[in-house]
């Protein structure tokens, strides 16, 4: 069969698709990956065929606009769907969430030209199956227009399903004349441009006909959707194993430190300052492998003697040698640490679903979280790092989650399942 993968031009979102795409390709199926032009080299470096669609993606202006528009609530800044409360959001907050996501995320990562180009590719190539990133709703649109089966492939916990299910329940309680759904309205306009119409309660355009989910089943929210379990197999892009990683570490234990692009931007990014982290690990009897951008490293000056600063190191190769990892809650980092059975200390950046990751992780006893960043200090960080490393319960919890993931079908194992579901769902 022919399988079209699509994601917006974020390498980490494409990385989440690589192993399933490769499994389908090595099983003999035709596979192409469609995204904005700047992702083409990243796609071909993974051994897959790239199809550029739409203009070059530039999210910076939209991200700034979203953040300023929701300055009083960063968690609604257009890039977050955090809902860690036990009770549902009130209607106004839920509506605000999907208004922000529709205006600042869905419409921006999938411009009209990107969607039009993807529909044209699908009409020409006639895929049997479209597999799409959860933020790239051009995928289900192209599938609907061409009659292909389609499925989401998650990059982490299914926060979209959790929030969308809650939103629909609130929407159904509203009087008919007050049922405002910005996401459905946008999808309706988009389909209409291609000669299609929304169906009643057309949630498969948001949640897929089914969902391929690499998160451990024990960490999922009960939303009642059809899932295909798949083992998370880390892919970090083109990389080389550094020589120092083959040597015996100079300290009894090793810790990985990576807080993404927001490391050190505490005023604007909402994460812990890099200087505080350096002070927290200074003098600990551990080697700290810290991923630091060159400009940040220069600003920090002299680093503690136990810190090894690197521009990049493949996490899947580094983490087996680590007793713990400190990070910001990014999905690739979070999932790779789960797959390698490494206890985690998360300093959540409050974007997208990082808060929910911390709740699931702590509930599983596999890590800790810095909950109140406004009162954060190097001493508090240091205490949490020592607790993570010295209490064997966290290593045991991480090992349990790794065992659960290892017992999940590998990407190659789910190919027959995808073949069967495609035959059942394509028009």
UniProtKB/TrEMBL annotation:
All residue ranges annotated as the Erythromycin biosynthesis protein CIII-like N-terminal domain in the record: 23-260
UniProtKB keywords: Antibiotic biosynthesis, Glycosyltransferase, Transferase
Pfam families registered for this protein in UniProt: EryCIII-like_C (PF06722), EryCIII-like_N (PF21036)
UniProt xrefs under InterPro entries: EryCIII-like_C, EryCIII-like_N, Glycosyl_450act, Glycosyltransferase_28, UDP_glucos_trans
Domain of life where this protein originates: Bacteria
Domain Erythromycin biosynthesis protein CIII-like C-terminal residues, every copy: 277-421
Keyword Membrane: no
SUPFAM superfamilies (alphabetical): UDP-Glycosyltransferase/glycogen phosphorylase
PANTHER family: STEROL 3-BETA-GLUCOSYLTRANSFERASE, STEROL 3-BETA-GLUCOSYLTRANSFERASE UGT80A2
Family: Belongs to the glycosyltransferase 28 family.
Designated name of the protein: Activator-dependent family glycosyltransferase
